[in-house]
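Section 5.1 Outputs to date
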Amino acid sequence: MAAEEKPAKDTLCSHPDCSEIATHKAPKGRGKDNDYLWFCLTHVRDYNKTYNYFSGMEDGDIAKYQKDASFGHRPTWKMGVNGKDGPSQAKSHDPYAFMAHRARQKAKASEQQSPNQRGRKLLNVEKKSLETLELDGTATKDDIKKRFKELAKKHHPDVNGGDKGSEDRLREIIQAYNYLKAAGFC
């Protein structure tokens, strides 16, 4: 009898020496999913005491079966397409480009944020470079570029008549800006 919740009305117990009506189902065994034996209460208890799903299997096979059970006995594959190394070439189905649009929005929002707002802790050299540009940790890419241009114009030797102090300050500003640029701040 396949996957029935109740046996036919007058099904007899599957035990050979019993003539009682069967009221309880019991699995036939490994590889016979949805196939059951029907027993009376007394014999289903006896059957359950001796039933062993893993009978006939070796220890290694039992361990493998139990490990596979954690994945629902589904196969797993290596990362990438069909186990090939590298990024997956499979394209997901996104006919209205909802996911692509969301990714662009997220990237744009991230660009507008300062590194500190993105949850990144500033290193001392990054803090010092921002201080050199007279900015704090919340400065965005646009803020850094704008301040660099302002300070470069202000401290350029042509504007200050060759003042050595101004030249040194410009050198510090350029170094700070180049460091922040290399670190991905702008």
